[in-house]
Amino acid sequence: MPSTAIVGTPDWNQPAKLTVAIALSLLCMVAVADDDGFCNVDTSCDSNVELPTATDCATDDCACAQQIQCVITNSSPDDNWSTIPTGDLHWNAFFWHTRFLETYVSPAGEDAFHAALDPAQPMTPLPAGTILYKAGYDPIDGEPGDPDIDQGAEVFVAAKLEGDYCPSEYEINGSCQGGGWFWYMADYTASDTDPFFSAWGKPDKCTACHNTAERGDWMLSLDIQRAYPPQP
Amino acid sequence: MIISIRIMILLSVIGAFSVGCSNKSDPQPLAATCDVKMPPPAPPSEFCLTEAPLNPLAPAGIFQDPAYMSSADGQRMMECFAWETFIAYNWPAEPGCRGIPDTTAQLDATQKLSVLDTFKATYELFQPTNKDWDARSIAWEDPVPDTGSCGSPVVENASSAAPSMNQIVYQKSPAFLKNTSVIADQNGETVVYTVTINQDQFEYIRQNGFAEPKAYSFAGPSSTTTKVNFPANADSTTGYGSAELKTAWRVLSDDSECDSYVCRTAKVYDEDDSDCSEEILGLVGLHIARKVDYSPKWIWATFEHVNNTPPVDISDDDDTSYSFYSQSCAATVPDDCYSVAVAASPAEADYTCCANILMEVAFLGSPNQLTRLEPIPALADMNEMFQGVLAAHDSVLQNYFLVGAQWAKPDVPGTDAYDRPCNPNGAWRVPEPSDGTACYTQFPAHVRNAVIEGYNIANNTDGGQSLTDSCMNCHWATGIDGSFIWLSVMNDIYELD
């Protein structure tokens, strides 16, 4: 679990430091299933679980979300993954997501992510194995102050799998909504129910916003970097 | 002196172009029968210091480079420009033509189709799901096609209080919220939107092949060699320069409110069930973005209806019935609104009275409580002056006001300054320029249409809310030459066959 509680007024103009984290807060926007059916988070993950391929996901998108989430759980991101770029748990002032957010990148994607932040380089899509994982929290008892990290997180994930994930119904005019990523949201906040996926695959609530960031492999932080390259 | 020269120019323009206009009295649907040429624009806007001109022709642009003006003068010039454009775009249209005002008509109490109604709906040019689409063969004058799910866009038997809009309304979600959330008025009716472009923008996209199948994506033209640069007035087909518009409408229960709203009857397309319904619509918001010389970052104006939401300093005894605000809701608002980012599930029902909160599909039909947060940036005397003249003409336009007209003020004259905003803000984390870099100030810093960008506010840790984003900030962060047109046509699709 994240250990840093951030309080204070958001600094809207603080430059790159929180760019990635906030931009990733736009990953997915809400918490109601928009896919038909229901998909539970697997709470007894096999320790050998591996990332599914895009083809697997096209066959069974719920099983795919479950597997990816198990890979994340097994890796304990808060101990083993980097936050990007240096984003500790911070306040999110925007309507998307939860009020507190923290974002991690999987080791397989870390170098590529940092390389992609350099707009002097052509944007190459992030490699298979890249998982961007955001954990979100509400304030304790709704009071100004600290995030309720004991409550359980709302989880927002974009994962790059072997082979781009783009079932044909998401292809428009030669491009794929939300790029080659598999997107999902998982809700661990309710104490009386098992965690469940509130959206998975290519939910509109993720792609409608991320479609603005095609230049940055559908990641807003990378896209902004291209619109406004860092200065010396 | 200057003013009288302008009037003379205007009169001669009107004289020249009112000759030869045909079928003026026929309220016919748009057809490719227009033999009237687009009149040249009115002279550039100055300051609207003493009078609010009601001119059927939009101003060509602005008359001076704002880099050499104080921000106060610049603001006045831009607001004058915005109002003059608003008047011209709401001017009755030349029947049978597209984008052309009927210069012999008046602004009065009658509801007539306006220039705004005749701009090109984006679906007329872009059909991203049709791989055989031939955008190059579309002509500006072509009538709105009648081949999509809704058939002819013309609503037969529309009342004179709400004439047929003659284009399909197919956008129901605010930007970024495709199918996941809507803004609803106090009756629980969903706000609907149109996006249209003027002839100069249309020709630029069409002629460059930027609407051909597979030639574009969400992020604009796929070509890596072409950099999109929409024409400003001087280098455009008609001399007006590129313009993009977004209109936002309430669904009204009947036409009884049409004495205070711009009203239209329109076919509204529902993507979920591929169905169309005929609705009476009242205009609640209008975005106008125009690219003109001296303002390469465009000028971003937004107008609202006076009954949308109360002013920031609403008084306790204000009993106006606002379309997007309820006094009783305000009285029962929970005190921890700021802690809930999105009202998503029924468990969060208590939060639907929270101001400016995003409500998910679970709350479809729940009224939004929208507030203004800051005094509107536009000059009060400018709004009063135009509203006064419009009232004297008995026009429903008197019920609209300019929220703000945002523009780029370069800190040093020249083009370098246009690369970066000096005062970035909003969700996108646009970086601040490093010391000594030329930049432009987004002026005013925050402009928000309380309905169209209703939910785009900042929730602060102290429990308060504030404005943060703006038109330019967002459109220049991830837009293409400031435009989201390609994103818009890929995210919200109306298929013509």
Describe this protein's structure.
- The complex is a heterodimer of chains A (232) and B (497).
- Chain A has 232 residues and is an alpha+beta fold.
- Chain A has helices at 19-24, 54-59, 61-75, 77-80, 107-116, 204-210, 220-227; strands spanning 39-40, 82-83, 90-91, 100-105, 131-137, 154-160, 171-172, 175-176, 181-187, 196-201.
- In chain A, the strands form two sheets. In chain A, strands 1, 2, 3, 4, 5, 6, 9 and 10 form an eight-stranded antiparallel sheet that branches. In chain A, strands 7-8 form a two-stranded antiparallel ribbon.
- Chain B has 497 residues and is α+β, with helices and mostly antiparallel strands.
- Chain B has one domain (2-31, 50-491).
- Chain B has nine helices and 14 strands.
- Chain B has helices at residues 2-18, 71-89, 115-118, 122-125, 199-207, 327-331, 380-392, 471-478, 485-491; strands spanning 120-121, 192-197, 216-217, 220-221, 243-252, 263-270, 275-292, 295-305, 342-343, 358-359, 400-410, 440-443, 458-459, 465-466.
- In chain B, strand 3 and strand 4 form a beta hairpin.
- The radius of gyration of chain B is 22 Å and the shape is globular.
- Chains A and B meet through helix 1, helix 6 and helix 7 of A and strand 3, strand 13, helix 8 and helix 9 of B.
